[in-house]
Predict the structure.
Amino acid sequence: RLHVADGTGYLADRSDVVTFDQAAERPEARIEARLGARMNGLVVDAAGNRYLTSLETDRLTRVTAAGEVDDDWSRRAGIGVSNGIAIEGHTAYVTQSTTRTVVLEVPLDRPEATTTRELTTPPEIARGLDDLAVTPQALYVTSWTTGEVFRVDRGTGDACVLVGGIPRATAVVVADGFGEFGPDDLLVTSLHGPIRHVRLAEG
């Protein structure tokens, strides 16, 4: 099923977790959880648990496969406001849009043991990080304020600007499996509408 965080707009006073079968001829939406705050990013783990970020609340929210909010886990995931989220194995990678440019690594079994990777610090201007994608080698992170995609080496933590000039870049995905695209191709969305294809340089 496709999982959607509904009610993410600035005027929304709450969010719903909605799912539907995208393969159905006439998909029917099913509300699986109603949440009191405006959520933003959403990701699903292998067990069907949903994890949501928020630009309003100071924690991640976990919704179980049964549609129940896991209050204990969510309290322990008090990482501050958050934006994008992706999961690799047993770790969630989360972006923040604050005065610092950081990506958080949140162990799903111990969210209180979160660690931080800083991409920029004051006085350098903070990037408004949004969504991200994870590969075995790197994190690819979008910045909607500067129109950049960062590459963060997972081994060393070193970060660089992979590509710029994408106004209001919002999300990135490794395009492996999309038609003729492979693991060296990224697709980047933006608030301006077009989807950009970014080809990773060999080596």
Observations:
- The first helix runs from residue 71 to 76.
